[in-house]
Specification:
It contains 12 helices and 2 strands; from the N terminus they run H-H-H-E-E-H-H-H-H-H-H-H-H-H. By secondary structure, it is mainly alpha-helical. It has a two-stranded antiparallel sheet with strand order 1-2.
Length: about 230
């Protein structure tokens, strides 16, 4: 990445952090571009690039009268903003965002279960991942990153198998957050034993076409995960 691109990213992250953490509020105007360039010790072109990125994401509105104001980004922003809030905010807003992302995850995965059973979709890819997990759990040295990767892969594949393309796109837009939350969940490798048992039960329920038990099992597992990642 070039020096100019690095500086642009630095300006973008600083301004969006200020907006997310309410140092800048809706309808507030940014300093004129020339003054922003002086404040960030950079060029006008870098500031212009940063403003363009932030306006595209929904944080800012560039007024035809040549001033830039802050948007109410929760209503004007893109899904990218969810990741910004998660990684850059603190306190109640971050907690609320985590809860809402987990709600979407629960909806996507339980709906995937319904689609798989209702349309008799093949689950061989899920079974393959389960076998990888079983092999890993019997290994004397468990790499926590492998555990995390396989767990995320199982959840993601569950949604993919459902063949619901729009739901998958929504689910994948939060993948970076999911991986980070799963790391929080696995504060102990021993938890992997419990998770694998749940994965195995789910595969069995899917093969048996037992939709009620499959959804109850999966809801309980995801709610347990929510309790763990939100407990602090």
């Amino acid at each position: 990445m070039s020096k100019a691109n690095n500086k642009t990213l630095e300006v973008v992250k600083d301004i969006q952090r200020k907006i997310i953490n309410k140092e800048l509020n809706p309808k507030d105007r940014l300093l004129p571009l020339r003054e922003l360039a002086l404040e960030y010790n950079t060029s006008r072109s870098v500031i212009n690039s940063a403003i363009h990125i932030l306006s595209t994401k929904g944080y800012l509105n560039v007024n035809p009268r040549h001033y830039v104001e802050v948007n109410d980004y929760l209503y004007t922003g893109t899904l990218d903003i969810v990741k910004d809030i998660y990684f850059e905010s603190i306190g109640a807003l971050k907690t609320k965002t985590i809860k809402e992302v987990l709600d979407i995850r629960l909806f996507a995965e339980t709906d995937a279960i319904r689609q798989i059973i209702d349309h008799d979709l093949p689950i061989n890819h899920l079974q393959d991942i389960l076998e990888e997990e079983k092999a890993l759990i019997n290994h004397p040295i468990k790499d926590i990153n492998q555990i995390i990767d396989l767990d995320c892969k199982f959840h993601e594949t569950l949604v993919k198998v459902s063949e619901h393309s729009v739901l998958l796109l929504l689910y994948m837009s939060f993948k970076e957050i999911e991986v980070d939350l799963v790391k929080e969940f696995y504060n102990s490798k021993e938890m992997f034993n419990t998770v694998i048992k749940s994965h195995e039960k789910l595969v069995n329920y899917l093969n048996q076409k037992d939709k009620q038990k499959a959804i109850e099992l999966w809801t309980e597992l995801l709610k347990q995960g929510e309790t763990i990642v939100l407990r602090d």
